[in-house]
Amino acid sequence: MTRLRTMPPWAAALALVVLAGGAARVAHAVHHGRFLSTDERAYAKLAAALAAGHGYRAPKMNDPLHWPPGTPVLFAGGRLVGGVEGQYWAQLVVGVALIVVVFALARAIAGPWAGVAAAAAVALYPPLAVLTGDLVSEPLGALTLAVAVLALVRAWRGPPGWSRFALAGGALGVAVLVRADLLALPFVLAVLVAIVARGWRAPLAYLGAAILVVAPWSAYATHRSGGELVPVASSSWSSLFVGTYLPADGRQFRLRTALGDEARAHNPLLRGVPDDRLRAEWVLDAVAARHPHLDRNAAMKAEVQRNLRVYALGHPLDFAAMQARKVARMWLGYDRGTHHNRRDWILALHLLLAFGGLAGLLVGLVRTRHPALWAILLTVLTVTAVNSFFVSEARHNVRVMGLLLAGGAAGVALSRRGRAARSEPPRGGDVRARLASAARPRDAARAR
Fold first, then answer.
1. Which DSSP state fits 226?
2. Alpha carbon 72 to chain centroid distance?
3. What is the pTM of this model?
């Protein structure tokens, strides 16, 4: 009882938030759906193979390297502990960990109450709870990305030295192994690290560690693919083809309508299959068959180059409008998970949290120019830009929602402190002092 009385109010509030978020996720872990999407089936098959000691391969799977390794490894661990159902409990652990990490991130930037606010938003954000019942990579992607940004903030707050930045870069490398579309992010954030640190050791350590974490898997995947470079996953050219194919507006389901006849002509077994029953892989098989002298990846690369030449250069305004529509699809909807109906109240909540988080982040940046807020903004912008060229859907926003909510809560908290919280990009050994300046008004208030 004595410990409860001495517990800070924010700690009690955080405990309630974690309990509420955990309860919502337990419900979805227990009552998960039985229908599995193509990606879910692939992750489950690879996890089963890994758990059984068969390596990164599965029966009747033509290209296991299509999927990055992070999520199958997580699910394999879940299977080893709790069988098939253990995969969903692994998602539960990831979901609760995300709440705690988002709290730690916002707290590191602007104090514990900002952390509690961000954690509450993540805990009660329905899409992140619903995904506990789906075997997808988004929850782990959101967690590893939040951990990577938290590690970078702690590197800035710590004493001068490159080792903390190497650790932060390694954490980001792990996130890349979960989501291949984050491959450009280490290079983007390394530039920010160089600007903030005003030196070369920190950014080189940061970028080098990220590359070192990814390199062993990249070497293995490249060897498995017969020497064709596979940085993380072999799906990049196929996704880029869909994302740059203007007649289908960069969408999977419209691709079936646009190229359904070609798919049926390529594969006689599909002649009686209507467009809405065609799998994307069958359509892409027909596209790859346009280049019989090339392997699949090389054929899809050639088609991507053709799309850019014919549509991006030949019809630049129409192509730009398609890219804008893809960004709108990414952010103006929410991730419904697998086989869930749309709910207007969830959409309204998503829009409120997404644009409220962005507004708070921008206000905090204008008032304080805090480098941690810059890191969050650059991460969100990079993920958005990359996905605007790939197949951009609402499910792609969920992996950065935790960061956006942490940045929004921290930005509002910092902006309320006014000029005293200003955090200019720190110089060298002043990193810790400059970042710690945001906490001085709070410390002074406690002293009074």
1. T
2. 16
3. 0.88
